Each structure stands twice: as structure tokens, then as C-alpha cells.
Amino acid sequence: MSQSNKSTVAVRHGIEADKAHGAVVPPLYLSTTYSFADFDTKRDYDYGRSGNFNRDVLAEALTELEGGKRGIITATGMAAVHLVTQLLNHDDTLVIPHDCYGGSYRLFTSLAKRGLLKLVVLDLTQPQSLAKLEEIQPKLVWIETPSNPILRLTDIEAVVTAAHAVGALVAADNTFLSPALQNPIAFGVDIVVHSTTKYINGHSDVVGGAVIARTQELGDELAWWANNIGITGAPFDSYLTLRGLRTLKVRLRQHQENAQLIAQYLEQSPYVSQVYYPGLESHPQHELAKKQQLGFGGMVSFDIKGNLQTSAKFLTSLKQFSLAESLGGVESLICHPATMTHAGMEPQARLEAGVGDTLIRISVGIEDVQDLIADLESGFACIDENQATDDAKSFKLTPAHTVALW
Ligand SMILES: Cc1ncc(COP(=O)(O)O)c(C=O)c1O
Question: What cofactor does this protein call for (predicted)?
């Protein structure tokens, strides 16, 4: 699908699908069970766990947006991650990146500890890691790009080439960019996973997930497991998530325009030692981002100069950013990964993933960016009023800061 008709698909899929009354918006089907048309003659649906209209409309729209063949809607993003592990037997090896989402890391390591799969943790941003796949002979390679929270990029095409050469499948967690800004299947990825809780729903009021398979066969196998283990999503959640999906592209346009400006602001702040945003030319993988992404996204992380106390003081002084986990909603959220999203990781693994006491992650919302920057500025001033420099105070938005979008 061309980038230019993504909004059309997101807005129109399922419109006028109601055969009974011609409702423009797909109606909500809450019924858990469906009457048979005749003896031994099922209609489209028989039981709510196995199939539901609202889930199907959402799954079809996401499948089309990702360029796959079959999608499955799950109750949460973690249910989507877990669903993919059903493809593995106890003697199959899963390769994961060392800096994947903390919840995924916890799930994979817990399954491995119980002997349900074998696990190898690698830094998949490094080409030498890919050379190890031949020796490891994995069944599945997991990638998450950009990674959470450091926004490191993995070269999707390079991983797919190396993994497919040894007969492994590749699954990509595409939560951070959504189908509006990255389509891993176009680079040969076999399975795309989303926490739809984030950008796809976009309003911080539904927890959900999706798995999209590149082939019908793989999609059918995953759909069979989703019904079998009972992790399919609720109809009302699917209804709301489809409503969120309608505005995905316009929301992301604003998210990333704001994120780019905030990243530029942070980069020149004397209170910041390092900014992580793929849209900055200083990002080591800026060129890779331009190659495999359709935009740079709405997530920005940075290290504040100081220590844990500095982070705490800064974070609790802000007014326009809610101190909260999660991401991808219209409102700006800020979090301290070491004590929040990544607290479940073992300390050593967390440090190796670059998640220290001074790391701060922002899910940039779609508010007026001047208000967000002014709030960050007063937050920095709170750390040490005497050091609020003229530089930080003089940052002004200019037309040169406008980013090219789509
Ligand atoms: C990248 C990523 N994948 C998966 C998940 C899990 O999703 P959920 O919280 O919807 O279960 C999250 C949650 O933050 C995430 O950030």
C-alpha cells in the first residue's frame, strides 16, 4: 500500500458494513453467542471468544495497513507478545534484543526459566550479533525498533536476511511507530506485534494488542492459538480502538512535529547530557531511520545531568506532562524508566540497556508545543534556579524547526 492512502484505509475500513440498517459506523456486537441458521449450519460467528465482528473489522484494517495477510486482535499488547511465543517448543531458541520493552523481557526470561523455550539475548543493533545466528540456530528472532526507551534502531532488512538464512522467523514489535510510520513486513518480517494501547488507539483509554502475520498460514496458526488460549480482545475495546485508528495519521503528524522540536530544544539545553531521537542528525542511526521508517515518531528520551534526585525533582515539577507509564496518547506523558517501565528488569540488564537513574522518556503529545517547551524549561529551572541559563531561556521556535512530514 502506498503511504498516501493509509489515512483512507484507516478512516474507511468497515464504514457502511452494517447490512441491517446501513449504519455508517460499524455497530457494536456485544453478544457472546450467536444462533445457528439451521441444524449444523453456522453463521459468520458462533461464540465471542472465537470470532467477533468488531475484532474482525479492526484486524482487517490493521492487516491492510501493515501489508500482512491475517491479523489477530488480543486483549493486551502482552497477550500479543505471548501469543507469538506459542509458536515455540521447549527446545526452540528465541533470540531477543537486550533492550526490548521491560514487560516483554520479563515474559521471555520467565518462560525460559520454566523451560518452555530457550533464550539468547543479543544486541541486535550490532552487525556482529547477526553473525552468531548461524551458530545459535534460532526458531524465532524478536526485534523492537526503535527500542524502548533508548530509541536505538535495528536494521530490519539485515536481521531478516540473517534470520531467514538460518530458517528462523522474525517478529517485530512495531508499537513505537505504528503502521503509519513503519511497515516491517515490507522488509520481510514474518510477524508484526502491536500494543494497540499506544498510538493505534491513541487516547489512553483502551488496553489492547494485535498480531499481524505476513502469510495466511502463519496467521491461521496464530489465530488458532489465540482462540485456544483465550486471549482475544473484547468487542468494545475493538470498537474504541477502531475509532482511534481513524485519526492515526493526523495524530502522528502532530506527535512527531512536536517531538522533533522538543528533541532540538533538549539538545541545546545545558541541563541535558544526551538526547535520543532518531529525527536528530546527531542520532547515530539517523540515516537508517530515514531508510526504514516513514517518520521519526513521537518518543524522545534524554539523560538529565545529575543523579536520581535531579530526575525526581525535575519530573515532579512539570505541569504539562503527566508522570505516567505508557505512551502514544494525545496527552504528553513523562516517565523515569529505571523506576517505572523498566523496574522489572534485573539491575545489571537494565544498565546494559542504557537505562540509568538519569534517563527520562517523553511520550510527546499533540498539545501546543510552545506550552510543552515552556514547561520543560521551568522544570530545568527548578533543579537549580541559579543555573537556569540564558541559552535555555532563549530557545524560540522558528520556521527552520518545521519538520518535513510525509
Ligand atoms: C513496545 C511495547 N510492546 C508491548 C507492550 C505491552 O503492551 P500492553 O501494555 O498493551 O500489554 C508495551 C507496553 O508498554 C510496549 O511499550
Answer: pyridoxal 5'-phosphate
- 77-85 and 102-113 are packed helices; what angle lies between their axes, rounded to 10 degrees? 40
Which band of pLDDT confidence, cut at 50, 70 and 90, is reported for residue 385? Answer: low
The answer to whether residues 179 and 79 belong to one domain is yes
Helix 77-85 to helix 216-229 angle (10° resolution) is 110
Cell of 356: 540509568
In terms of domains, do 234 and 255 share one?
no
CA angle (209 as vertex; 154, 66 as ends), nearest 5:
55
Query: What's this model's pTM, rounded to 2 decimal places?
Result: 0.93
CA 194 to ligand 1 center in whole angstroms: 8
Contact 63, 220 (CB under 8 A): no
Backbone angles phi, psi at 290, to 5 degrees: -65, -30
Residue 313: pLDDT over 90:
yes
Coil, helix or strand at residue 372 = helix
Collapsing DSSP to helix, strand or coil, 211 comes out as strand
Quick check: CB of 379 below 6 Å from ligand 1?
A: no
- Whether 405 shows a pLDDT value over 50: the answer reads no
Q: Report the amino acid identity of residue 209.
A: G
DSSP secondary structure string, 262-309? HHHHHHT-TTEEEEE-TTSTTSTTHHHHHHH-SS--SEEEEEESS-HH
CA of 77 relative to ligand 1 center, distance in Å: 5
Q: Indicate if ligand 1 lies below 6 Å from the C-beta of 175.
A: yes
Of 201, 216, 244, which marks where a domain is finished?
A: 244
Whether 20 and 86 share a structural domain: yes
Of all protein residues, whose CA lies closest to atom 14 belonging to ligand 1? 326
Q: Is the CB of 77 under 6 A from ligand 1?
A: yes
* C-alpha triplet 221, 225, 230: angle, nearest 5°: 150
CA distance 155 to 187: 10
Residue 91 phi/psi, 5-degree rounding, is: -100, 10
Interatomic CA distance for residues 209 and 196, integer angstroms: 5
Domain endpoint, select from 244, 265, 280: 244
Report, as residue numbers or ranges, the catalytic residues: 49, 101, 173, 198
Determine, yes or no, domain membership for 406: no
Domain that holds residue 369: 249-387
Peptide bond into 26 cis (omega under 30): no
Residues 302/275, Cβ–Cβ less than 8 Å: yes
Distance (angstroms) between ligand 1 centre and the Cα of 378 equals 31
